[in-house]
Amino acid sequence: MPGVGMKCLNTIQPIVGVDMHKTIPPPSPVPPFAPHVVVWGEGWSQKTGFMWALANSKAASPESAVAKPVALCWGYAIGRGHDAGPHPGHVWPNILLPLVLLGSGSKSEFASGTVSHPQGNMAIAVAMFVNLNLDCQDFPIPPLPTGVVMAMFSTVEAGFTLGDFLGGLFSMLIDMAITWVSGLICAGIMSALSAAGRGLAGAFRSMFNGGGFFAAFGRGFGRGFLQGMASSLRVPMVSSLGPGAVASAFRTAAVTPVTRSLLREFPYIMGPVGSAVSIRVVGSPVGYSSPDSAYGTYLAPSGQPDPNAWANRQGHSVAGEKPESASPYAGEVESSGSPPPPGADGTGGAGGASGTGGGGGGGR
């Protein structure tokens, strides 16, 4: 096999990690981004048909309705770009967990460029025994590779080259950037709505006192919008992320009563609300996105370019390698007269993986 043999990912492998989300009740002394422990699995959401998980899944499994499922080590192979979310696997005493769930995701960005199956190129563990999935965080923190996929028991390996690594890294970076910009847009919308209320209140007061309506509205709206955006871009943390401090914060939050005055602290929920709106309403072309979002409904069906695939292609190009075999850019190589890479038709390519327990064409 070309490159270094890396363990392949499948739908039963567990994911553990830590994501940062805003929380009610907050651990003292400040409203923080609290470290939510994540415990879930690569294919658990799509296996159960949880919410829109099937739309984000790239598992070559019966649930994904592929013609030829690719069995791999008691599970099914997954493709690069597979999203394990949405999922309920966040652990922290937080009444905002339903909102966190709507914005949850855990995306596998690295794959073998020459081994493919019906759902794309074979996802692999970039650190041999574990993979670093791109996990959800609350805005303004971008998605980060804080989800650790346990792949050490996989007996199937696929070739992994420098171009595959750079392609996965570039794909990860563009996903982070697009998701952050989507979060910024949602923060702007939420800040504008809040600022409009403040501006109207000031405008009516000014009008009743003989002042101008629109000038007062503009002043109130401008100040409110700037303050709202400044608040959305702050990342207050617990005073220390040491194990003792985190354990103490968890105990404090678990016994803190949720009162009406606590719920009035609207800025607490801007992160989860922004993430939920970004995922469920706005959407994006990089996963973490409901098919019922504005992007999924109006833009995705019209053949918009895939920025993730474009970034992956740039990584392979930097390394002087061809695009990955299941890439929409692989056809450029074929049209130039060069032979297509193994598995470019998305059917027999998984045979390029080596090991045992592959089943269904996933290995030998």
3D architecture notes:
By secondary structure, this protein is α+β, with helices and mostly antiparallel strands. The protein has 2 domains: 4-180 and 303-355, no CATH class; 183-278, no CATH class. It is 37% helix and 17% strand. It has a 6-stranded antiparallel beta sheet with strand order 6-3-2-11-10-7. It has a 3-stranded antiparallel beta sheet with strand order 1-12-13. Strand 4 and strand 5 form a beta hairpin. The longest helix is centred in the middle third of the chain and has 47 residues, at 162-208. The two termini are 13 Å apart. The relative contact order is 0.18. Mean pLDDT is 80; it is low at 335-349 and 359-364.
Key attributes of the depicted protein:
single chain, 364 residues, alpha+beta, 2 domains, six-stranded antiparallel β-sheet, three-stranded antiparallel β-sheet, disordered C terminus
Please provide a brief summary of the model:
37% of the residues lie in helices and 17% in strands. It is built from eleven helices and 13 strands. The strands form four sheets. The protein has a six-stranded antiparallel β-sheet. Strands 1-12-13 form a three-stranded antiparallel β-sheet.
Give the tally of β-strands. Answer: 13
Helix percent band: 25-40%
List the total number of helices.
11
Distance between the termini: 13 Å
How would you classify the quaternary structure?
single chain
Give the overall shape: elongated
Mean pLDDT: 80
Uncertain residue segments = 335-349, 359-364
String of helices and strands: EEEHHEEEHEEEEEEHHHHHHHHE
Structural class: alpha+beta
Structural domain tally = 2
User: Largest sheet at a glance?
Assistant: 6 strands, antiparallel
- Our Rg estimate from Cα atoms comes to 23 Å
Tell me the β content: 15-25%
